[in-house]
Design brief:
Length: 475
């Protein structure tokens, strides 16, 4: 009986093994991919490259981020009570308010005071003044906390609070901290300020993940005041300094009322995650619900854990429910297909849709990809305008006359699927009017994007923009 050599044996074994790998990969793709085009593309790759295709899918096609986030970020912080109202007496917030309530299983809570703070010139003095008056606790979270004059001024105020016996806690994103060197964390440690890095980047053990970043911005003082919005901490937000080459326009908000408890609860969830604690003590809020408030709000948390897609579902739904107007201001505009469909449908219903994006962007590939992704919207006749330099980092969504959404999220897949974000729904005609006036002022300064401009791009530019668009989920 002739024995087979090792090479001959491999020749018999490998083809069925490759075939089995292809079938297993195809089965996983069919069961787990929600986009039919993406599923078809991965299956085609496995057919064309029967060996490399399944291996490439194994490395890059499986969504490990969501599974890891669900496993690791599973924080439970019970609350003594959750005081919310589904529909305040005399208000007519439905059906818009139903959307967030169904997403979060929470009603609305009051906001007794809301102040818009434009750029670092308004924000940082207000933050520092609040920290200086702190009596019990200061809780700060920021994606970027730069080691420059603005960052150091905030750090000094935090240090003084620690010396007064105030309980200070700081969360910095592990990747955002690298935006300026030296890293601010070393300085905070030197000052004796308790802080954690959210998902820190480390070589040993290796953890260099650019996903699952904490993009939330929060400052809570004594459970009485809360600051949130889009601004990080650093000199780039000093927008009135013409000599500042990296200056950025942005918005932030100071809030008071029951919504502060919600934002503080969100901070403690992130702090517990940083400490590796899945269960934490009962959270006791500092505020009582004010049933006669003029402003009503709701916190929406979003992240690759169990909160995935909440903000995208919220935005698509409120746009779909709009009756008169949809006003969007965002620094990065790479909407997914469901939002593109909702925007076009709103326009076809006669709703005024206006979208403001930066004419100058700090991330060039995002700017290139945007030119490719807006084509369908321009073809449908939507009004998209480019804001003049400097870079505008502001984030706003205004629906009709009573609804606003503020917070940290951009309209792109990285923000809405890979980052930890937060949004605050605001139901108030007065707040909507104030933000609408700000939007209109920016709109008047902006230049309309046209389909002619998109079509007149040179072939190399079109190819560049299209290639950038292919990578838009990761930009």
């Amino acid at each position: 009986m002739q024995t087979l050599s090792a090479a001959e044996l491999l020749l018999y074994i490998l083809p069925p093994l490759w075939l089995m790998m292809g079938f297993l990969a195809a089965g996983h793709i069919l069961l787990n991919k929600r986009d039919s085009k993406a599923a078809f593309g991965w299956i085609a790759l496995c057919i064309i490259l029967p060996v490399a295709g399944p291996l490439i899918y194994l490395l890059f096609g499986i969504n490990r981020i969501h599974h890891r986030a669900q496993r690791d970020y599973h924080i439970k912080i019970p609350r003594e009570d959750l005081q919310t109202i589904s529909e305040p007496e005399g208000a007519r917030f439905k059906p818009l308010s139903n959307i967030g309530e169904n997403l979060t299983r929470k009603g609305l809570c009051d906001c007794t005071e809301l102040l818009m703070l434009e750029n670092g010139e308004a924000l940082y003095p207000a933050m520092i003044d609040c920290i200086k008056q702190a009596r019990s606790r200061v809780l700060l979270a920021s994606y970027i906390f730069d080691h420059n004059s603005s960052g150091l001024a905030v750090a000094e105020a935090l240090s003084d609070a620690v010396k007064r016996g105030v309980d200070v806690k700081v969360i910095i994103d592990g990747m955002g901290e690298f935006m300026t060197l030296p890293r601010i964390g070393h300085y905070l440690k030197k000052l004796g300020i308790p802080f954690h890095r959210f998902n820190p980047l480390t070589l040993f053990p290796p953890s260099l993940n650019i996903n699952m970043r904490n993009h939330r911005k929060l400052l809570i003082v004594d459970g009485e005041w809360a600051f949130t919005g889009g601004q990080n901490i650093g000199d780039r937000h000093l927008a009135m300094q013409d000599q500042n080459p990296d200056r950025v326009f942005d918005l932030h908000f100071r809030l008071k009322g029951k919504i502060v408890d919600e934002l503080e609860w969100a901070f403690w969830k992130d702090w517990s995650y940083c400490e590796g604690k899945h269960d934490a003590p009962v959270f006791h809020g500092s505020n009582k619900l004010q049933p006669n408030a003029d402003i009503w709000t709701r916190l929406i948390l979003d992240g690759p854990n169990k909160d995935i897609d909440k903000l995208n579902h919220l935005m698509v739904s409120v746009i779909s429910a709009a009756q008169h107007q949809v006003l969007i201001m965002t620094p990065y505009f790479l909407p997914m297909y469901d939002m593109i469909g909702a925007l076009i449908a709103a326009h076809l219903r006669g709703v005024k849709v206006s979208i403001l994006v930066p004419g100058h962007n700090n991330i060039k590939p995002v700017h290139w990809a945007m030119h490719n992704s807006v084509r369908q919207l321009l073809e449908a006749g939507l009004d998209i305008r480019l804001q003049p330099p400097p870079f505008v980092h502001s984030k706003l969504l205004l629906i009709d006359d009573q609804y606003a959404l503020i917070g940290s999220a951009n309209i792109d897949q990285r923000s809405l699927r890979l980052n930890y974000e937060l949004g605050v729904e605001i139901f108030s005609a007065k707040v909507n009017a104030t933000l609408r006036e700000y939007f209109r002022l920016r709109e008047q300064l902006s230049k309309a994007m046209t389909l002619e401009h998109i079509n007149q791009r040179s072939l190399p530019v079109k190819l560049r923009d299209s290639i950038a668009w292919l990578f838009s989920p990761y930009l």
